[in-house]
Design goal:
The structure is a single chain. The protein is an alpha+beta fold and about 280 residues long. It contains ten helices and twelve strands. The chain has helices at about 1-15, 20-30, 35-45, 50-60, 125-130, 135-140, 150-165, 175-180, 180-190, 215-220; strands at about 70-80, 90, 95-110, 115-125, 170-175, 195-200, 205, 210-215, 230-235, 240-250, 255-260, 265-275. The mean pLDDT is about 95.
């Protein structure tokens, strides 16, 4: 019976339901009411760390590649109430606005064969609205020894866990929130981990002569021979093709990558740490 309810619950979580709660999941899997599923969730033991290890072991056995890429990404989950752990009004890139939601930081694993799997996750807990309120945390079941971690700190924890478990990978990548975080960059560089992370257009580039220029101005000074047209994967409308320029710096292990849209000329900027000097 428990195995049946576990399957029903997972099927409900994966279903394209607009809202997921006891009633909607029960109706989706054909149960007349949610009591059986609720009893299963409340009383059955659930080893989250054990499940993550099982998932990671599957990756190591079937998908592991030294050329794989670790991908960090924060994702927002819209919520209506105030009881879900970590919920508050905050900006969510998923929703594109400030709204009532939870934020989780995820670590994905992408292989050269385009296999993609979730490797790890951390729920972001705001300091002021949650961890500074022990009564609220206790009511929601947050362990009393939980401490505040920024999302870049959560990423560091997950990368270190992957490295300690022997997960092979060649690069790490993430969006601008992580790319402009000096603590995360320093941690990756000290560990010798290659990365490509997005950075703002006003990031300062220092060339070999020590001259400093914002990346947006560097891009405007490049001539046509600096750009190469390359595809970066398949989207809903076919290959996504951009113009790319690789900019050296005064440090042999660091470069900047500039991406230019061939449709409207929009620019995106990336900081590359390339200690192995990959071509």
């Amino acid at each position: 019976e428990s195995r049946k309810h576990a399957e029903q619950y997972v099927r409900g979580l994966l279903a394209p339901l607009q809202r997921k709660n006891g009633w909607t999941i029960a109706e989706h899997v054909g149960e007349p009411e949610p009591k059986a599923l609720q009893r299963f969730l409340n009383l059955s033991p659930w080893d989250v760390d054990g499940l993550l290890k099982l998932n990671r072991d599957y990756v190591l056995e079937h998908l592991a590649s030294p050329a794989a890429i670790l991908v960090a990404d924060p994702t927002g989950f819209a919520k209506k109430g105030t009881k879900s752990v970590g919920v508050q009004r905050q900006y969510s890139g998923t929703m594109g606005r400030i709204d009532n939601c939870q934020i989780a930081t995820f670590l994905g694993y992408v292989t050269p064969q385009r296999d993609r799997v979730l490797l790890d996750r951390r729920l972001y807990l705001p300091q002021e609205s949650w961890l500074a309120d022990p009564a609220r945390c206790a009511e929601a079941g947050v362990p009393p020894d939980t401490t505040f971690k920024t999302r870049p700190q959560q990423v560091i924890e997950m990368i270190d866990a992957a490295v300690a478990a022997g997960v092979p990978f060649g690069w790490f990548t993430a969006d601008e929130e992580f790319g402009q975080n000096p603590g995360l960059r320093e941690h990756l560089e000290e560990a010798g981990i290659s990365y490509v992370m997005a950075v703002p257009k006003n990031t300062v580039h220092t060339d070999a002569a020590g001259q400093q220029t914002q990346l947006k101005d560097v891009a405007s000074q490049l001539n046509h021979t600096c750009w190469q047209r390359r595809a970066c994967g398949i989207g809903t409308k076919g290959y996504r093709v951009y113009d790319w320029a690789l900019i050296d710096t005064g440090h042999a292990d660091h470069q900047y990558l500039i991406r230019r849209s061939i449709d409207d000329g929009e620019l995106a900027f990336y900081h590359c740490h390339n200690p192995n000097h990959a071509g």
